[in-house]
Amino acid sequence: MSFGLSVGLGLSLMAVVFSASWAFARRVGNYSLVDAVWAFGIGVTGWFWFAMGQGFPKQWVAAGILTLWSLRLGWHLQKRIRSHHPQEDARYIKLRRIWSGREAAAFFWFFQAQAVSVVLLTLPFLFVFSDHDGSWSGFESFGLAFSLLGIVGEGVADSQMASFKKRNSSPGAVCQSGLWYYSRHPNYFFESVIWLGFYVFACGSEWGWATVHAPGMIVYLLLRVTGIPPTEAAAVLRKGDAYRRYQKTTSAFIPWPPRREI
Question: Percent of the chain beyond pLDDT 70?
Fold first, then answer.
């Protein structure tokens, strides 16, 4: 199957998935669920393309790490969304205000934009799954190592935050233990490591190097759009000076020994 047809079919599949998700989100009054659908959608798109591949061992490994990432993050997100329901994430509350009077249509196209992003981000795996050379190289080895390191690190960070919230019911408490002692957003850092690993893995396949946009998009979104900026803004509102002190001493992204507060 040609590259263009594969992408077109992937886009069509995700358009249907996100349309159905939008309809369900509108019905239950919670558009936050798009986050979990996004994570699961990348895994679904990957397996859709995997079914068209040659079935080489490296393609099975790629499908495995993608599935591991997709299921872990998707399950984590849907669990958080369900625990907060019917309260939406602050990002979507803000979008409701911006799109007041036309929110249903605006969110529909927002969901479709997520469908496009899913396909764009899964492209490294399309090149792996469509590769006619099944040989294993250093790219696959390093990519697998980076991906697994990132998945484990992100899982540990999420687990530490969940444990902290169970022990500290105060909304003003700031988690500064474990990985959160070294970074204000270790989960985001390890997410970027995962996508660097996916990209390096894809570089072992023909034209895989051309998908550098995927880790680039993830890092940009985490640093500038849907990651750190809204998370920090919400944390300052909830936690006040305690979080401002945390900002002054602790790295925002890359884990690093904290600075002494002046």
Answer: 99
